[in-house]
């Protein structure tokens, strides 16, 4: 499984190596993975892991932040600052997102308060980069930007989780699954988001007559 974590220049410290090893290990084996295994993956000691992160909970919190940052930056690049050919380049290298995708799946499937908080953070980030994309006139305005961000997060994450249930990972290679999933949904999703689905706004108009949208401040 290839790593998708972009390490900023100068962030090649032992702490960063442990963090990146933990992200890959949590993505592969879930959050039951031991600190000793993570230390071995990073080529360091269990004691040094504890020194930097105090506990597995502390390490996971740092991993969460790094994965969220990676997703946020990739989404912002695609939706706000994309240059010609960027989307095609991202599609060509989609396997490189396998570690992040695996971590996202593990984080959401783990359940509990940590999973709920992780999802809330993803939705907050989605609302932020959608607002930037709207201001840049790359995305249409919404009557309820927060609700739109929630819907996109739910539908995007949910679709991938359902796909994983129907197509078990072959040989634990999530990169292959991510490639197959992307090939299957790229055209219909781009078509839907670019051109819309309904030919008239009748259903929306009916809904808004019954449930008028509150003005956004």
Features:
217 residues
What report would you give on this structure?
The protein is mainly alpha-helical. The protein has a domain at 63-210: Tetracycline Repressor, domain 2 (Orthogonal Bundle), CATH 1.10.357.10. It has ten helices and no strands. It has helices at residues 14-29, 35-42, 46-53, 56-79, 86-92, 98-109, 112-135, 145-166, 174-195, 202-210. α3 (46-53) packs across α4.
Indicate the CATH architecture of the domain at 63-210.
Orthogonal Bundle
CATH class of the domain at 63-210: Mainly Alpha
Class inferred from helices and paired strands: mainly alpha
Order of helices and strands: HHHHHHHHHH
Secondary structure: helix percent: over 70%
Here the CATH topology of the domain at 63-210 equals Tetracycline Repressor, domain 2
Give the termini distance in whole angstroms: 45 Å
Low-confidence stretches: none
Number of helices: 10
Tell me the fraction of residues in β-strands, as a range: under 5%
CATH superfamily of the domain at 63-210: Tetracycline Repressor, domain 2
| Rg, nearest Å | 19 Å
Q: What is the overall silhouette? A: elongated
Sheet with most strands: none
List how many beta strands DSSP finds.
0
The mean pLDDT is 88
Chart the SSEs and their pairings:
Blueprint: H1 14-29, H2 35-42, H3 46-53, H4 56-79, H5 86-92, H6 98-109, H7 112-135, H8 145-166, H9 174-195, H10 202-210
């Amino acid at each position: 499984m290839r790593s998708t974590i972009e390490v900023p220049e100068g962030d090649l410290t032992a702490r960063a190596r442990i963090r990146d090893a933990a992200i890959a290990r949590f993505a592969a084996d879930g959050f039951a993975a031991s600190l000793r295994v993570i230390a071995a993956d990073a080529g360091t000691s269990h004691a040094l892991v504890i020194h930097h992160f105090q506990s597995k909970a502390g390490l996971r919190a740092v991993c969460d932040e790094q994965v969220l940052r990676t997703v946020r930056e990739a989404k912002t690049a695609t939706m706000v600052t994309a240059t010609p050919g960027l989307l095609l380049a991202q599609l060509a290298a989609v396997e490189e997102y396998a570690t992040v995708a695996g971590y996202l799946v593990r984080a959401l499937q783990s359940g509990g308060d940590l999973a709920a908080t992780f999802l809330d953070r993803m939705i907050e980030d989605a609302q932020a980069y959608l607002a930037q994309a709207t201001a840049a006139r790359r995305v249409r305005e919404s009557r309820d930007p927060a609700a739109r961000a929630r819907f996109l997060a739910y539908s995007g994450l949910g679709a991938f989780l359902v796909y994983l249930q129907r197509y078990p990972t072959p040989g634990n290679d999530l990169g292959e699954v991510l490639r197959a999933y992307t090939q299957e949904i790229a055209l219909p999703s781009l078509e839907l988001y670019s051109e819309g689905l309904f030919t008239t706004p009748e259903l929306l108009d009916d809904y808004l007559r019954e449930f008028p949208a509150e003005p956004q401040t």
